[in-house]
Structure formats: structure tokens, C-alpha cells
Amino acid sequence: MNKSDLVDDIAGRSGVSKKDIDNVVKALFESVGEALSREEKVQLVGFGTFEVRHRQARTGRNPATKEIIEIPATKVPVFKPGKSLKEQVK
Predict the structure, then answer these.
(1) Number of structural domains found in the chain
(2) Residues 20 and 61 in one domain
(3) What's residue 90's pLDDT?
(4) pLDDT tens, 52-66?
(5) Based on the number of CB atoms within 10 Å of its own CB, is 29 exposed (0-12), middle (13-18) or buried (19 or more)?
(6) Based on the domain organization, do 14 and 46 belong to the same domain?
(7) Considering the entire predicted model, what is its pTM?
(8) 34 and 46 both lie in a single domain
(9) C-alpha dihedral over 12, 89, 80, 2, to 10 degrees?
(10) C-alpha distances in angstroms, 41 versus 19, 26, 28, 34, 53?
């Protein structure tokens, strides 16, 4: 399912126009992205939690040349599904 499929599905279930739903979905994605950029946790009860985790710098290997390289420390967004979502997927 992509974003337009999601918008279509929500519009069909709610009876709200696709344009309004598209604006809401865009606003949701922007809000989650901005909160994560501030390293805030976004918890949607029953659905899951989005948060930022820090990865330490480490050494790696270029598979093409076998050269050892330094991989810098970075921040990555992660999603942990909530209990209701896990049960729904079973």
C-alpha cells in the first residue's frame, strides 16, 4: 500500500474527501518527522512508537575492494509496533 492507496482507503472508510484526507496524512507525516528531528518520541497508543536511536561509529569493509572504512556515528528513526498492531498482524 502506498500513500495514495492509504488516502483512498481512509476516504472510503470515513466519508471525508480525498483532498482533506491527503492534507491530514501529509500533516501527520510532517509532524512525526519534525518531532523525530528534535529527537522526541512519538507514541501512538495501540499502533506503535517512533523514536530516534543513535548508532556508534564503527569500522566496516567495502565489499567491492575489501578496503576497511570508518562508518561515522549516525541517528536512525525506528518503529516499534504496539501490542494491538502485533495482535492484528498475527
Answers:
(1) 2
(2) no
(3) 86
(4) 999 999 999 999 999
(5) exposed
(6) no
(7) 0.81
(8) no
(9) -40
(10) 29, 19, 14, 11, 10
